[in-house]
Amino acid sequence: MIKFEGELLEKMSEFDHEIWKTAKTEEGYHNPSHCPFKNKGQWCRKCNPMFVPYNLLPDDIKELNRIRWRNIHTILNKLGLEIVQKEGEKHVDIAERTKQVTKLYPYSVDKHGGEADSGLL
């Protein structure tokens, strides 16, 4: 059984952040430094200061991602499920997996017109 802790927890948290960034980028969200309105002294509604690589996130924001993955592990255990690692697959290319996953599970808009949130960050 795989337990989300240490390096694996950090990789999963980074993976989660990269999936979020990829999906939001496709919706037009960006870092405030790339905002078309930045020269006017304001941010637009698509600005988000968390649009940075995972390693540059503040520790409290990284912890939100870690909590998410710890909770997933707890939920799966309560359901009698576990995650096992495929034999021979020890290293994951996060950038490549992000592309694969966002194609399979894109963020979507719910029937009420609001964004269906699929993650903390």
Concise synopsis of the structure shown:
By secondary structure, this protein is mainly alpha-helical. The protein has helices at residues 6-26, 59-78, 94-104.
What does this structure look like?
This protein is mostly helical and 121 residues long. The chain has a domain at 6-27 and 58-104. 43% of the residues lie in helices and 0% in strands. The protein is built from 3 helices and no strands. It has helices at residues 6-26, 59-78, 94-104. Helix 1 crosses helix 2 and helix 1 crosses helix 3 (94-104). The longest helix has 21 residues, at 6-26. It is elongated. The protein starts with 5 loop residues before the first helix and ends in a 17-residue tail after the last helix.
Quaternary structure type:
single chain
Summed over residues and divided by their number, the pLDDT gives a mean of: 76
Write down the secondary-structure element order. HHH
Strand fraction band?
Answer: under 5%
Instruction: Give the helix level as a range of percent.
Output: 40-55%
**Poorly predicted tracts of residues:** 104-121
Counted by DSSP, the helix tally is: 3
Q: Radius of gyration, Cα only, in angstroms?
A: 16 Å
What's the β-strand tally? 0
Main β-sheet description = none
Class per helix and strand makeup: mainly alpha
